[in-house]
Amino acid sequence: MPSLQDTWSTDRVVAALYDTAVQYRATAWAGARVLWGFPFSVIEQELRGVAALPRGTRILDLPTGGGLALNGLAPDHGLDYVAADLSSEMLDRTRARVAERGLPDIRVTEEDAAALTFDDDAFDVVLSLTGLHCFARPAAALAEFRRVLRPGGELRLTTVVRGAGRRHDDAVRLLRGLGVFGLVGTPDDLAAWLDAAGFATVTQTQSGALAIVRATA
Ligand SMILES: C[S@@+](CC[C@H](N)C(=O)[O-])C[C@H]1O[C@@H](n2cnc3c(N)ncnc32)[C@H](O)[C@@H]1O
């Protein structure tokens, strides 16, 4: 079985396939509905939320993938934006997207979620869309998200969780077997990881197999 770290950091095909699928509305909607039972409008709403952040907000988008969350931004977005991921293929795609769209003030950088290189309190918002389930060490990543958020800063996160139905759990098992998914928790596991990370307030809702989290540092 391929190691998870290897799959995402070196497998350009997996990265290209995922990013291509998620960037086209029809395939993004079909994948979200068929595999995970949620309407892709959940993610589209997150993208609108990023675009609506006040100017000057320091935001970490991790894992940015191919820069999906940049799709909602206008050229005069005014955010202080760091787009980070483990995968060089994904980061190349994000850089291309930033250039195509002429977006200023986007720093694109390689980071491992479980060992971030940023200072404490460096961000007002951490955005983590549909990626935690791909991480080998999700609890460590959440602790790092908490560390780099300023007190009162916000984590906006979506992730696949186990236990939402047989079809979804079978898909999790398959993707874990392929080395694409990491340690996938249940909703209770996720709540425990967030608590252990030290978030002050947490709300966690669910649509199909997708957990949607808002947590304040
Ligand atoms: C399913 S994609 C989601 C990407 C993006 N948020 C989106 O919705 O299109 C998961 C991403 O997690 C990244 N990833 C996996 N393990 C990581 C880690 N330890 N640190 C940072 N990124 C990681 C992968 O490279 C991949 O881009």
The name of the CATH topology is Rossmann fold
| Helix count, DSSP H or I runs of 4 or more residues | 8
Give the class from helix and strand content and strand pairing. alpha/beta
Query: Main beta sheet, described?
Result: 7 strands, mixed
Q: How many separate domains make up the residues?
A: 1
Strand content is 15-25%
The CATH class is Alpha Beta
- Mean pLDDT over all positions: 95
| CATH architecture classification | 3-Layer(aba) Sandwich
Q: Which runs of at least 5 residues are low in confidence (pLDDT < 50)?
A: none
Q: Output the radius of gyration.
A: 16 Å
Give a quick set of tags describing it.
seven-stranded mixed beta sheet, 217 residues, alpha/beta, binds S-adenosylmethionine, globular, Rossmann fold, 22% strand
Care to describe what's here?
The protein is of the alpha/beta class and 217 residues long. The chain has one domain (4-216): Rossmann fold, CATH 3.40.50. It contains eight helices and seven strands. The chain has a seven-stranded mixed beta sheet, sandwiched between helices. It is globular and about 45 Å long. The structure holds S-adenosylmethionine (SAM). The site of S-adenosylmethionine has 21 residues, from α2.
